[in-house]
Amino acid sequence: MNDSDRTGPDPAAIVKYIQQTFPETDVIALDGKAWFFSLDAEKHWPNFATLVTTDEFDADAESNLARPGVFRLNMGVSRATFQRLLGSVDQPDYAALDQVFPHPTYAKQLWLSILNPSHATFAEVVVPLLAEAHDRLAAQRARHAT
Amino acid sequence: MIIHAAIPADFPAMQAIETEAGRLFAEIGMDAIADDPPFSLDELADFTDRGLAWVAVDETGLVAGYLVVLLVDGRAHIEQVSVRPSHGRRGIGRALIDHVATWAANEGLSAVTLTTFANVPWNAPYYARLGFRPFDVDASTPELRQIRAAERRMAWIAGRASR
Lengths: 146, 163
Hints:
The structure holds 2 protein chains of 2 kinds.
Chain A: H1 3-6, H2 11-21, E1 26-30, E2 34-38, E3 47-52, E4 72-76, H3 79-86, E5 101-102, E6 111-115, H4 119-145
Antiparallel strand pairs in A: 1-2, 2-3, 3-4, 4-6, 5-6
Chain B: E1 2-5, H1 11-27, H2 31-34, H3 41-49, E2 53-57, E3 63-72, E4 75-83, H4 92-106, E5 112-116, H5 123-129, E6 133-134, H6 142-151, E7 154-158
Parallel strand pairs in B: 4-5
Antiparallel strand pairs in B: 1-2, 2-3, 3-4, 5-7, 6-7
């Protein structure tokens, strides 16, 4: 694997991708520490994805986000997807780059996470997960609206 | 959970928290407080414009609690601290208060004060555990005296000048 295979989109590129792909997305940015992606422009909640660059959300800095340039992208998915991707993982490495793992705190709520996806992983794994996370929330909102 | 200065995007959650937390007072028969409307968007903007409001938010973007202060008699007076009942007993209120105590010290404010309803059973032990002690509101604290009298509350203080 050469170096270009290991590089991936940075937070700004991912935020831009989400905004362009799902134009109705409401994005709240917190001082470069966190971005929250919802479909509710008034309540800004719930979120289908979040991106954080700080360990402050975690009890034990499990992902070691203090490493320069390291960030965590989190997505809420279906139970089936969560099981398919992570059902067999019992001791996740929360600090591994470019690898999907259960969110250290919100796995029970079916949130999964990845640190710094490579371009290839972003295209093959993250793009479909983002779409699922978005579509699930959109469907939930449509049900509640009727 | 992180604590950050509140922004307008947090206002709907702050109002919802106040409404939810108010229900706890209804459970002990204090309906007047339970029915007290939450801060309006304008009132919340007054706090955030002056940098006097903070929220605790988790990684899913949920705002779990908030705190607003007023500058009263040269001290940081906690006007309101509220946590979603669903997120109670996890130290979020304490984290908010600790955050503001550090902020107040950095701002050169001598102490943090608050008032509570003396007859709400969970209040006194809670604030005592957080380092507050009952406080004689005297002539040196005219504004706080006014607040306490208007609300028939008990005053508490923590900080350098309180020792």
